Prior knowledge:
- Helix content is 21%, strand content 29%.
- The protein contains 8 helices and 19 strands.
- The strands form 4 sheets. It has a 7-stranded antiparallel sheet with strand order 2-11-10-5-4-3-6, with no helix packed on it. A 7-stranded antiparallel sheet has the order 12-18-17-16-15-14-13. The chain has a 3-stranded antiparallel sheet with strand order 7-8-9, with no helix packed on it.
- The structure holds FE2/S2 (inorganic) cluster (FES) and fe (iii) ion.
Amino acid sequence: xxxxxxxxxxxxxxxxxxxxxxxxxxxxxxxxxxxxxxxxxxxxxxxxxxxxxxxxxxxxxxxxxxxxxxxxxxxxxxxxxxxxxxxxxxxxxxxxxxxxxxxxxxxxxxxxxxxxxxxxxxxxxxxxxxxxxxxxxxxxxxxxxxxxxxxxxxxxxxxxxxxxxxxxxxxxxxxxxxxxxxxxxxxxxxxxxxxxxxxxxxxxxxxxxxxxxxxxxxxxxxxxxxxxxxxxxxxxxxxxxxxxxxxxxxxxxxxxxxxxxxxxxxxxxxxxxxxxxxxxxxxxxxxxxxxxxxxxxxxxxxxxxxxxxxxxxxxxxxxxxxxxxxxxxxxxxxxxxxxxxxxxxxxxxxxxxxxxxxxxxxxx
Length: 364
Ligand code: FES
Ligand code: FE
């Protein structure tokens, strides 16, 4: 068997490759921007940047979630500077007061009726494709994207047991990491590093346990086993929360970890789900949002407390970000060369790198 290596250093530092990744991956694939319940009512909105693009994610009068470029059709001005909030009926540009409905139609353009040939119908907001999947909102900036159902076909039915669509956000933590986004996905995709980097995690779940069930293609992952005496990934290893949805049998002792190409990491525990989204800022800088989702009935209990899960993964996340930053620094060295990966314990990073190279046009 030939030895598979890490990617060359340029892939973690070159601005040219980074821009290529943004064009061919982040502006072309389905990117998770958040949860549908962040905008429960018409007019609710939040802003999410994808690379250099700013998107307004809102809900129109009919109740449909929508994604619009945060760009006025008059002179291009940012329509919305707030990170989140609620529009009152319409979206108004702060420059010359052009005004749009929540479904993107231009309905106000002061004095422009004096201009021959001007028709408001010609200037709706630029929209982006948006789909809801398992309660997550996915946006695709390609005007003619691959249908989400096709792109996510390998994941079909995989998460039904956890009722992911019905879960609610209990906690969100944002991280600012000085590492390339691919290092973070590669790190998530293997537990070869767990004994040394995550001593607390290693006590709850052996890095040699479990099996992967998605080992090639854009989406990758599988499960690891929670040790006999433990129940979930928490500070104590125990949980007072009941299992989610239809979780039963072997799944009561498993955590499933999936990377959903390109920017989502989904971790399904017996009693909660954790979702990371990665936001590349530059070749060596990534913002990360981590969210903890729980059953709304469990959340309504007076004794509900997500801290045991949040603290455990916040600690583990920081261990990962730190080691990825150390890796990023080392890869800048003049002596760094691609290093050999373990064909079993690091098979998912290999598959992920392959998918990135494929998206960048390195294979036909
Ligand atoms: Fe928006 Fe002029 S730039 S109204
Ligand atoms: Fe880790």
